[in-house]
Predict the 3D structure of the following.
Amino acid sequence: MNIGDSILEFKKKLPPGVRLIAVSKTKPEDLILEAYNAGHKIFGENKAQELSRKYNNLPKDIVWHMIGHLQSNKVKYIAPFVSVIHSVDSLKLLQAINKEAEKNGRIIDCLFQLKIAREETKFGMEPEEIKSILLSDEYRTMKNIRIIGLMGMATFTDNQQQIITEFKFLHDTFFSLQREFFQGVNYFRERSMGMSDDYTLAVQEGSTMVRIGSLIFGQRNIIN
Ligand SMILES: *Cc1c(COP(=O)(O)O)cnc(C)c1O
């Protein structure tokens, strides 16, 4: 099956209200263009410079999501065009995004990355750290970012119950933050969870954005 067909097949499996972020990291531009020509417009990348290069070379109505760990000094590469940044894991990074967004006269949508996995290697913040950002004076003065929800990556394991517990934790944290900080704020509504191996569980636990790479584009030969 070609990329266009496999992406359309995959989208049919998703319930309404769950958006597909097609993760095209390490994949060549012609494959992305195939998916685009089949009608898919939302793509995710995890490296700022690779994302910037693909943005320059591909149609300008592609909606780009930054899903990978982002260093503050690299925000400038993507600030002119990026649609959503999923991986905000510090106040410092959020300040950098706000500053670069302001330079570009934009408001950039962001998700806080919540640490839900038990593995040491996964980035992300504890709920307390997210709350302290939301309560800070620095946050209050930011005019060029918008927090639209949470992102999380579950542990890479065969233990389905553990994965479910981790997704439930993201779901519960989302609603507790909504009650405490985003009452009546309609744009705070996204739960970015689920990858190729665990998206069915994520959807079951209330995901609104799944980030799917290998299931659509095939295995990557580089691990990242
Ligand atoms: C690579 C990546 C994905 C997609 O992974 P697959 O297992 O190929 O679906 C999703 N989210 C993040 C943050 C990634 O880095």
